[in-house]
Amino acid sequence: MSELFDAVDALLASRAALPPPAERKRLRAAHGLTIDEVATALKVRRATVSGWESGKTEPRPPERDAYARLLDGLAKLYPAPANTRAAEEDTAVPATIAGPVPPAPEARTLATGQAPEAAVMTATENTQTPAPAPVAPAPAAVAGAPAAAPRPARTIRLSSMSRRPGVKKAAPAGTPPAGGSDPRFENGPLAVVDVDTDGKVLAYCTGGLVLDVPAKSIPALVDWTLREAKLGAPRLSGPGKDADPLIVLTEAACQRYGLPVTLTQEERTAGRLPEGHKVIKQLARAEWKLTKRGFGPWARIYRPATGSERACVQLCIPSWNALDTRFWGTAGQLPPAELARVLGVYASRVMTPRGSTAVTGLELMTALHPPTRASEPDADGKRHSVRNPGSLGKDAIDPMNFPPCEVPDGHPVLKDLPRFHVRGPEEKLFEEAYDWARPMTDAECTLRHLVGIDVNMAFAAGANGLIVGLGEATHVKNPAFDPKLPGSWLVDLSHVDLSRVKAGKQWVNLDGCLLPSPFTPTGEHPTGPAWYSTPTVAYAAELGYEVRPIEAWVRYETGRYLDGWYTRLRDAYLATMADLGVDADLAPEDFLAAMDGYKDRDPELAIVVSAIKATVKGGLGKLRERPRAEGWRPGEPWRALSRPTWRPDIRAAVISRTRINLHRKIVKHAAFTGQYPIAILSDCVVYAANGPSPLDFLPYREGKPLPGGFKLGINPGLVKWEGTQSVLWGEEVREKFNAPELNLARYIKDGTVTDEDNGK
């Protein structure tokens, strides 16, 4: 019997209320305890206790039980003054997260809480099949979420939107509440629709909210979503548009609504259902329309807008591969409540998914810089649609007005080139990420380890503060180089000698043979004139060498178009990593410890991190989207060219700046330490070292990094540990494949050498 009582006591302790973070700190200080003493007693890291006291993270069992016991004992010894005593409320489960309490059948009321302001975020395309789950996830901590004051109950109609019994548990850490400051979208940005074992159709929303769905068909589901579900998200920018509601259909929901669980090979190739499918006919009879992409994994169903009112719902079908496993991992296999949480966190921090992570990354740019806005009233008091300053406008650049050097092969502006002509660097702008390696020196072979470091959100950091062109390019001959003028420059940089360069304001002597060239993605030294983006040419001047462009395509209408995009994705990344226990202000040793196994602390939030990073790379890639079959032939325009956001020059500038940022740090590191990289792949750099940790070769002094060099941390542009292998492993791999310059950065993470692309 005592064992049963012990088990009950453990259950009670696991839900013990914790005082607010400020009260936790007061109680510890009142007893004269240091953070280190508490951390030692609870067998956790110092940074963990610090996070509990700041409210950035919350303890979880079994540490939570012991921590609650400690605070309870201290509270008895040091009660707070009556006028300052904080409410003893468990901040791990705020009222806004727990959601409204279901009413008794006769009560017909729902208690509501003040929900925090809804943020906006994006999700990608490919999902796999989630299994049904009748209950929401178990409670857990929400990092940094303040306790919400209770709100008065309000009376509503008990309709199909009432919460079902048994699904009122609080959502896990990082789950956005279902609702926001806008009453139109009080149930959140999206819902995962599933069918339970009783045959009832349920919509799993964010924050643990579950709604009954009365719809019997896809047209009825669209109507219900727009009229009753109260799903969606407010616009990200004043002149922009509110986010359309997103409905995710599980396999069971597909069967209920007459959709195939999976697509045939022919349908997968086409990316859509055939036009004669019965569901498409149902939509047509109900006067709903589909976009040109048809009814595919990410289908948009709409009616033409009337005035400012939009009627549009987006469907996401995971079992049709809507959530690509390369970017969304196992999200498609999650139960409905957990999938709603993953997509909801992404939606609240980035934006509501609009398709693949790449599509969403591009849509985020437009959402933050809408192409048009309302003008000031004219003489008759009427407003008109005008171009929004700082945007790319609503009209795409005429394909024939693009500089020939900036466009990919097959573009209409190149249609007069011979069919098999191969453009060289003097004809084509080739700004790409690094893929470079070199043989190890004899001295490096005497060291024991190869250590890889990886730049966090490198391409996002490259976009931050970057001045880009907003309009068409102008062709000029023999121009004077202007580092503030975005464009493409034909210039000879073969005279730049990496053996003697400026690092900051001082000239330094380096071993140029051990450094990659900053001007080519292969690291090879240029041999003559070539086209470069502005950041690359500016870096040549920064290294202390004269640059004399032969010609250029420059853009005089400029702006920091990507700043807001970078800020939103950075904040989403940092907030999610903080939920996983990796804060932005950790000391180097604590940061390395926090990064160790961070994905295992909450695999669902780890999926969100992966999707955020994919949104960065995919969004930039979409700026130069290539043809996708569709009967395209070289020299003909393709669909992407009709977008204002088809801007290969902006993509080139971001990649150029990212590569230059990395090379600048490499030069600083070499000048200070005499150490040179052995391999670079995109944002991963490999060095030889005597120890297995980045701290064994990064020059930290009294906890401070080399100014302008590599710094450990989670912020975009800082670096994390990528992986460590032995020098012997590196030599054996290169010898086995008879490749003395095999890029070891590609395999440094786990040491497995394959011919698969690891995404770098």
Polypeptide structure, described:
- There is one protein chain.
- By secondary structure, the protein is an alpha+beta fold.
- The chain has 22 helices and 24 strands.
- A seven-stranded mixed sheet has the order 5-4-3-6-9-8-7.
- Helix 12 packs across helix 20, helix 16 (534-542) runs parallel beside helix 21 (648-673) and helix 17 (563-579) runs antiparallel to helix 20 (603-622).
- The longest helix has 26 residues, at 648-673.
- It is globular, with a radius of gyration of 28 Å.
- The chain starts with a helix and ends in a 24-residue tail after the last helix.
- The relative contact order is 0.10.
- Residues 83-170 have low confidence and may be disordered.
Report the count of strand segments.
Answer: 24
Portion of residues in beta strands equals 5-15%
How would you sum up the major sheet?
7 strands, mixed
Mean pLDDT: 85
Low-confidence stretches: 83-170
Continuous helix count: 22
Judged by helices, strands and strand pairing, the structural class is alpha+beta
The coarse silhouette is: globular
**Strand order across the biggest sheet?**
5-4-3-6-9-8-7
Portion of residues within helices: 25-40%
Beginning-to-end CA distance, first to last residue: 58 Å
